[in-house]
C-alpha cells in the first residue's frame, strides 16, 4: 500500500517511526513537508499561502496516488490538519484519511466526528498502523484492529488498546530520510533522537500525564538499550554528519547506571555536543550526574522550573522539588561550567505578579545561562484545565475549543502573548519577561539593585516588543546559542527564496 504523510513546519519523529514500521512490512511511504516560514510558534510575520499549500498537496496526491493520507497533529496544528483533510476529501473523495498522534489519541471523540476523518489510531502507532495496512482490503479483519477507531455507515467502531510497547529495540530505526531528503543541508546539522518513552511525573499541564492514564497499570517508562542508541546514532552520523545531537526524551536521566552505560560510549563513538532535558529532583541534584553530563559532551542542560512558588508547583502543577534543590542544581552546573537553562511558563491560572517577581529573584540567584519561557497552552484532558475553570482563567465553552484545537494560545505567537497583560490577575507579562532575560545578561550586582524595587509587580509600563526581542537575541548570543536564531533566519530566507523561484518559474512557463 501507498501512504502519504502531511506535516507542516517541523520534523515529526513519531511519523518517522511509523513510516519505518510500514516500510519494514513492505508498504510504501511518502511525505508532503510544508515549511511555514512566516508563521510559527515564536513569530507570526505574514499570513501563509493556504492556496499554495493545497496546490502542493494536490500535486503530490496526483503524482504518488496514495491509498491513505495520514496526519499526526499536535493540538497547536490540529485545525490546520483538519482544513487540509477537508480539502483532500473535497477533491479526492476516494482517498482514505487516517489520523494518529497526540491530539487524536487524547481526544478521539472530537477527532473522529470531523467529516474528513475516516479513522484514527489511538496510542502507540507502529504496530497498529502495520495491522491496519496489512488488513486494509479485508473489512472483517480491519474492523477489529486494536487501537483503531474507524467509521462505517455512519457508525464508529472503537477497538480496545493493545498493550503498551515496551521493547523499543524491536523498532526499526526511524525513517529520517522521509524528512531529511527534503531538508536543506543546514537543517540536517542538528539531529533529534528519542531514546526512551514515557515520563514518571504527573505534571498537570503535560500530555504525558494523560498518556499514563490511558495505559494505567502498565509500565510507564521504556528505554532503548544503550547499544541500540549508539548503533542508531553511528548509522545516522555516517549518513548525515550532524554536528549537534538533541536528546528529546522527556527525562533522559532517571538512573545513574543508564548514564554510565550510555554517555561514555556516546562520547567515544559519536563525539558531538548534545543537549537534554532534566527534571529537578534529588537524582539530578547529585554532583556525579552533573559531572558525567559535562564530561561526556553535554553543552546545554534544560531544566524545568515553571514557577518559583513552591506551594503552587506542588499543589497545582503536581511537581516535586524545592527551590533549594533548584539552587543546588544551578550551583553544580555553574561549578562544572555546564550551560543550563530554566524553563518557565507564563499565564498559569491563578499565578500572581508576586510569584513572577519571586521567580525573577530566584533566577538571579541561580544565574542560568538562559531562561526559556512560554505561555501555558491548555492541552485536552489535562488537569490544569480544572484549575483554569476554578479561578476563572477559562470558561466552560473554552474547553470545547481546546478539544477542537482552537484554544487561543495555540493560535497566536509567543511574542504577541508576552507583550501584553494576561491571566485572571491581568499580570503585565512584558515586565517579567524583561527581568527574566536581564537576569541572564546583566551583572548580578546590577540585578540585585534592580530587584530591590518592588514596583515591578504593579508597573503598567509596557516594555516594547522590539526591546524584548533584542534582549532575547542578546541573551542567546551570550549563551553561545545564537545558532538557534541564525537557523531560524536561514530557514525563513531559504524557503522564502524557494517560493520566489517557484513563482518565477510558473510565471515564465
Descriptive notes:
- The structure is a single chain.
- With about 500 residues, the chain is an alpha/beta fold.
- It contains 22 helices and 17 strands.
- The chain has helices at about 15-25, 50-65, 80-90, 100-105, 110, 125-135, 140, 175-180, 205-215, 225-240, 255-270, 285-295, 310-315, 325-335, 355-365, 385-390, 395-405, 415-420, 430-440, 445-450, 465-480, 480-509; strands at about 1-10, 30-35, 70, 95-100, 120, 150, 155-160, 190-195, 195, 220-225, 245, 275-280, 300-305, 340-345, 370-375, 420, 425-430.
- The strands form 4 sheets. Strands 2-1-3-4-5-6-7 form a 7-stranded mixed beta sheet, sandwiched between helices. Strands 8-11-12-13-14-15 form a 6-stranded parallel beta sheet. The protein has a two-stranded antiparallel ribbon with strand order 9-10.
- α12 (about 285-295) links the parallel β12 and β13.
- α10 packs parallel to α11 (about 255-270).
Helix content: 40-55%
Structural class: alpha/beta
What is the CATH first-level class name of the largest domain? Alpha Beta
Please give the oligomerization state of what you see: single chain
- Rg computed from alpha carbons, rounded to a whole number of angstroms: 23 Å
Indicate the mean pLDDT: 91
Strand content: 15-25%
Task: Return the domain count.
Answer: 4
End-to-end Cα distance, whole Å, is 35 Å
Across the major sheet, the strand order is 2-1-3-4-5-6-7
| Low-confidence residue ranges | none
Number of strands: 17
CATH topology of the largest domain: Rossmann fold
Please outline the major beta sheet. Answer: 7 strands, mixed
Shape: globular
The number of helical runs is: 22
Could you give me the name of the CATH homologous superfamily of the largest domain? Cobalamin-binding domain
Reported CATH architecture of the largest domain = 3-Layer(aba) Sandwich
